[in-house]
Amino acid sequence: MEPFIFYEEYALAICKTCQFAVVSDELATHLRTRHRHIPPSTRSSIVKAISSIMGIRTNQASLAQLQYPDPSTAPIDHLADPRTDGIRCHRCSYVCRQT
Question: What InterPro entries does the entry give (predicted)?
Answer without folding.
Answer: OrsD (IPR022698)
